[in-house]
Amino acid sequence: MLLSAVIRHSRAVSVCNILGLGITRNYNLKHKMGENTADNVKTNGFESKTPFLIGVAGGTASGKSTVCQKIMEKLGQQQKQQTDRRVVCISQDSFYRSLTPSERLRAERGQFNFDHPDAFDDKKLLAVLKDILAGKKVEVPEYNYITNSISDRSHTIYPADVVLIEGILVFYFPETKKFADVIIPRGADNIVAIDLIVQHISEYLKRSPDAKQMLDYAGISSVPGSPQRTGKSGRPH
User: Fold this and answer.
1) Distance (Å, rounded) from C-alpha 179 to C-alpha 156?
2) What is the mean pLDDT of each run of 10 residues along the chain (237 residues)?
3) Choosing a second label site near 130 at 20 to 30 A (CA), which of 95, 122, 157, 197?
4) Where are the domains of the chain?
5) DSSP letter assigned to residue 139
6) Apex CA 99: angle with CA 145 and CA 111, to 5°?
């Protein structure tokens, strides 16, 4: 089972090719959390951060949402309040555009292709990604699947250290593709691959003073002399 991930930051390149238990790594991680702390300013009452943006892409039912959920769980983020989360996840599904009356009729008949790029509001997605990378608090729209239109409600994403964004075409659009590389899941039961992604994020977060406390809470610990990381799953690697 293959999961290939390339995670890139403006100051660093981290490459992880995972085939079974084989790992190739070439990285030099530096981040504003560990240096240039003056760049972190208050935005909307919260500390502005330049986050690590990780894209999770793949076809329908390929395991994108489950992979993100397991990463969040292993990092102990699911139990935290939104304002306290250091890793957050958003879905491209929030950026479907409102359909026209004729398109809604086609959707009701099962004749509208929601997997086509034209089904998404790529300009809205681009604007939100830019604000996220600027360390701003953002409002992510909620899509109403019954009316096939944007709901009046939205949910708030606060500045975080790591942002996971998942979707079938999340980096199809040229303007959004440049913001992060892509993880293509080959099944959400690939615990080894998920643990290695968690390791990358954990190493990144360790540059912050309170990271050790967060990792201890999540039950994640380093294995000396090994690129692996153990957690509460207890499953052999």
Assistant:
1) 21
2) 38 31 29 38 52 81 83 84 86 94 94 94 92 91 90 90 88 79 62 74 68 49 38 36
3) 197
4) 43-230
5) E
6) 80
Rounded to whole angstroms, the Cα distance separating 43 from 158 reads 10
Q: Could you tell me which residues come within 8 angstroms of residue 189 by beta carbon, excluding any fewer than 6 positions away?
A: none
Cβ proximity of 4 and 184 under 8 Å: yes
0.70 cut: is pTM over it? Answer: no
Q: What angle do CA 156, 37, 42 make, to 5 degrees?
A: 35
The pair of structure tokens assigned to 7 is: 């995670």
Find tokens 């699911």 and name the residue. Answer: 78
- CA dihedral sign, ordered 146, 149, 150, 153: negative
May I ask the CATH class of domain 43-230?
alpha beta
Retrieve residue 198's tokens. Answer: 């968690």
Q: Which of 14, 9, 85, 15 is nearest to 51 (CA)?
A: 9
